Amino acid sequence: MPLVFAGGLLFGFGLGFSHMARPEVVLSFLYLDDLGLVFVMFGAAAVTAATFFVVPRLRERAPLTGGSYGRRLKPFDRKVVVGGGVFGVGWGLSGICPGSAYASLGIGNYPMLAGIIGMFLGAYVQGVWRSKTSADAVEAPD
Questions:
Q1: Is the predicted pLDDT of residue 137 greater than 70, yes or no?
Q2: Which parts of the chain are beta strand (E)?
């Protein structure tokens, strides 16, 4: 658990240092005025790609869970499209993604608490809706 905490701190520091925890910077990227976020995202993608390709070759088991490495292939279906759309609309309206919202609190942007509460409420509503639709599918006769 300390490794996860340290990774979260490092991620938050990186977001704060790159100014990506400031909604106005993200919104200026969305308006195509400041493309600095492209470089931040490219750097994150490069580190992630290296990790996904190199670590499984160096270690047989995941360090925290002890499980074996493997790809989890999920279908590209309506849920993925709707979820991505909701995420994108929320990102565009607030000017910040969930990870950056937490880092934004660290730099003193306390009004972002409203957005974080909204994310939790949205996740709760989605969980209730999903459990209800799953229960309905189990009860429906074939």
A1: no
A2: none
Rounded (10°) CA dihedral 132, 71, 41, 97: 10
Which alpha helices (DSSP H) does 18-139 contain, by range?
23-30, 36-58, 78-94, 98-106, 112-139
Instruction: Summarize pLDDT for 21-48 with one digit per residue, the tens.
Output: 888 887 888 788 888 888 888 888 998 8
Q: How far apart are CA 84 and CA 92, in angstroms?
A: 12
Sign of the torsion angle spanned by Cα atoms 98, 103, 104, 105: positive
List Cβ<8 Å contacts ≥24 apart for 52-55: none
User: Tokens 């949205």 map to which residue?
Assistant: 122
Contact 29, 37 (CB under 8 A): yes
Q: Are the C-beta atoms of 101 and 80 separated by less than 8 Å?
A: no
DSSP letter at 6 equals H
